[in-house]
Write a sequence for this structure.
C-alpha cells in the first residue's frame, strides 16, 4: 500500500493544493456548501494537514481570497491591454480582455471572491474583508488609466475610483446572471454593454450634440 503524503511535486504542497481546491470547488458550489472533508479529498491531503495549515474553514477562505488575488493579479498584470499608449484604449482593452476570458464552464470564469462575498458578508466579517480587499484592490489597478483618460478628455463629475468600482459591479453582476441562466451569454452581453457605456461616457462633447 502506498502511503499518501502531503507533498506532490506536480501539484505543490498541501497548503497550495487546499487553496487550489477551494478556488475550484467554491466557485462551483459556494462556500457554505463546501466541506472540509470535500476540500481534503480534492486536494489529496488528510484532515490533519488541513488543520495544520488552517485553524478553520473561514481561515482557509481568507487565505483563498488572497491566493485568488495573487493569481489573478499576475494574470492581469501580464495581459496585453497594458500595451496601448492611450489610457482610454487601455481601459477599453481591459474590458475586451474580460470578455475574452469568459470561456468554459461558468465556474471556470466566475469570481471566487464575488461568489464568497454574497454568502459571507454578514456571517464571516474577516472573510468579507478579505473578499473586499481583493475586489477593490483589483478595481484600483484601473484607476490610473481612468484618471488619465478623464484628464485627457476633460471628463468631470465622477472619480476614477467610482468608475473603476462600477466596472467591477457590472462584472460581478454579469457572473450572477450567467449563474442564474446557467449560460455564459448574459455575462458576455453585460460586458458588451459596459464597453458601450464607456465609449459613450468618454465620447467628445461635440459628437453628442
Amino acid at each position: 500500500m502506498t502511503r499518501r503524503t502531503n507533498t506532490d511535486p506536480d501539484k505543490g504542497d498541501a497548503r497550495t493544493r487546499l487553496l487550489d481546491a477551494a478556488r475550484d470547488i467554491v466557485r462551483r458550489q459556494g462556500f457554505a456548501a463546501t466541506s472540509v472533508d470535500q476540500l481534503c479529498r480534492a486536494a489529496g491531503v488528510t484532515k490533519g494537514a488541513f488543520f495544520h495549515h488552517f485553524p478553520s474553514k473561514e481561515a482557509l477562505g481568507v487565505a483563498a481570497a488572497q491566493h485568488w488575488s495573487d493569481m489573478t493579479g499576475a494574470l492581469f498584470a501580464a495581459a496585453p491591454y497594458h500595451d496601448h499608449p492611450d489610457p482610454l484604449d487601455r481601459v477599453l482593452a481591459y474590458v475586451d480582455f474580460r470578455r475574452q476570458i469568459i470561456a468554459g464552464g461558468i465556474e471556470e470564469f466566475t469570481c471566487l471572491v464575488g461568489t464568497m462575498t454574497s454568502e459571507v458578508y454578514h456571517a464571516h466579517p474577516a472573510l468579507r474583508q478579505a473578499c473586499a480587499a481583493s475586489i477593490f484592490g483589483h478595481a484600483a489597478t484601473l484607476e490610473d488609466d481612468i484618471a488619465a483618460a478623464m484628464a485627457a478628455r476633460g471628463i468631470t463629475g465622477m472619480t476614477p475610483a467610482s468608475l473603476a468600482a462600477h466596472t467591477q459591479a457590472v462584472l460581478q453582476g454579469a457572473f450572477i446572471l450567467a449563474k442564474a441562466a446557467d449560460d455564459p451569454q448574459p455575462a458576455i452581453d453585460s460586458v458588451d454593454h459596459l464597453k458601450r457605456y464607456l465609449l459613450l461616457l468618454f465620447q467628445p462633447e461635440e459628437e453628442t450634440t
Notes: Confidence is low (pLDDT under 50) at residues 1-10. The longest helix spans residues 160-181. The beta strands are 7-8, 12-13. The two ends are 78 Å apart (CA to CA).
